[in-house]
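Q: Joint fold for the lines below.
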Amino acid sequence: MADLDAVDDALLLCYCTGLTVGELRESCRLDRWPPADKTQSGRLCTGCMGDLTHCLRALGASGAREPDEDADLGESRL
Amino acid sequence: MSSEVSGLKSATFHGDGYEHVVELVHQRDDHARRSLIALQVEVREAGGGLLATLPVDPREEILDVADLTRPHVGGRGLVMVTFDARYDPRTLPYRPHHYAYLHRRGSGAPSLYYAVNAVLGGVPDRVGATTANNLENYLFLRRPLEERYSLLVGNVAHWATAKARVLAYYAGRPRTLDLTLEPGAHAELALPAEQDGARLERVDMKTTFRLATYVVGRRADSGDMVLFDHLFPYFK
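A: Joint structure:
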């Protein structure tokens, strides 16, 4: 797992809610994940969900909501 | 997003021999030009390695992708080009729309115009969407064409490895392809136009998080690209 210490706080993590690495780092430090205005982080376009999960794990966030990596990727029904 | 700066990260793919021009802001305004606040363009090889970070003036309306990436493309096949934009949501309330022109030099095939795939962002919190949209699909024309099809998939994440399942449907029956992409990497999966006499009807892609995706069609004889279009999110 990559060391996040060297990552710039300003790096944008969730492009939909504007969550930065610095905000995530601070909320995890205070054990206040997710911040009130970032509850949708990772849930909108979902593109950031992989990196968000990576960072939450690296920062040891408690009660972190993570994507279901074993989610059913089987046949779809349209 | 509460601040006055929003982000949008889009991606496309570029190969040698093509004219490829991206219009950074498609929206027009009668009173003033709309432009981005900042833009960073990166070029990555198939394995995910960063080939270049390109300085771009965000006030430019048009980017010549072929010209910008020329020193980095030769002999590498397709490269992934990402556009990491910052914009003022008061100026561009529905986010910037990047559109592109694509044409193989010297080819008699028609030019292609397509919307650049917005991968990160583009769903501001005002929309209120709550459903994960990591299922995307594409429907093919019913009439048979002399074309070879494929799916281009890119992972724009910094650290996360992506898993994807691609389902190509023939007469309602799926053919499954599984794919794993390291951060920054991309791959092109061939989609046979026929299987057991049945035409390719549809392709679905399921992922644990959203990826850059395009369906590609190339003429069977010349290889000229005649289809380049991103998949569409499917909301359950």
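Q: Anything notable?
A: Chain A touches chain B through 32 residues (CB under 8 Å). Strands of chain A lie at 12-14, 19-20.
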